[in-house]
Amino acid sequence: MHTIWKGSISFGLVNIPVKLHAATEDKDVKLRQLHKECNTPINYKKICPVCDREVKNEEIVKAYEYAKNKFVILDEEDLETIKKENEEKAVEILEFVKLEEIDPIYFQRSYFLSPDTGGMKAYALLRQALKESGKIGVAKITIRSKEQLAVVRVYEDTLLMETIYYPDEVRSAKDVPNIPSKEKVVQKELETALMLIDQLTVKFDPEKYHDDYRTALLELIEKKKAGETVTAKEKEPAIPPDMTDLMSALEASLKKVKKKPSGRKRKTQEKKEA
């Protein structure tokens, strides 16, 4: 597994040499853009619209647009100074919290942490302490010139670091338009919705979920490579077109679920039998 960062984790006076590895990978199928006439990949050039010419990399500077078409130019020397001041190769655990106290909206990317030379014992100590306490560590780390807030927790038998957003990076739910505040819910519809949720409730098993679009796209690519004719399959609508009211949709959904009676239904049946 490729190492993307080397440094240390510290909590209190304990220091653990570690390596950082990407825990996830993007498996999107990358498509290129070609010139339709000759099937040649399209090139992209950096053009200055005022000078009307292509601009070389050495002619480009970085800037912050603080108002429309008003910029503050930032020199590479200035950026490098800030980078060096904040790029200490350490994950400093600031405090410990319970995982359930952090809403999933804050989570960004996941990284595996492995012990570097001389870090085995301290690594095992932190792992065991986190397991037995049921807590996770809240830490700070600088990756690629950006200071990140992160959490350190145990995943299977490995320490996992997950970068999380700062509070001011998460938009307020109050700004979302058209959210019903005191919409009256019909009791019968609520009971039917709860029954549907109960029927569809299972133990989470990530292995049974697959990217159907990616699979279909790869199959399409293979068929095109082999010169086969491709025809699209028609998909049945989730709800018949004539079902315009909510109750009908809920009842139709329940009929489609073929499953043994689960907790709520079994308890109801037991009460009736008693």
TrEMBL record:
Location of the region described as Disordered in the Swiss-Prot/TrEMBL record: 250-274
Q: Which GO terms describe its molecular function?
A: double-stranded DNA binding
Q: Indicate yes or no for the key word Isomerase.
A: no
Q: Which keywords describe this protein according to UniProt? A: DNA damage, DNA recombination, DNA repair, DNA-binding
Is DNA repair one of the keywords UniProt gives this record? yes
Q: Where is the composition biased (Basic residues)?
A: 255-274
| Homology family | Belongs to the prokaryotic Ku family.
PANTHER family named in the record = NON-HOMOLOGOUS END JOINING PROTEIN KU
* Protein name according to UniProt: Non-homologous end joining protein Ku
Lineage, top ranks: Bacteria, Bacillati, Bacillota, Bacilli, Bacillales
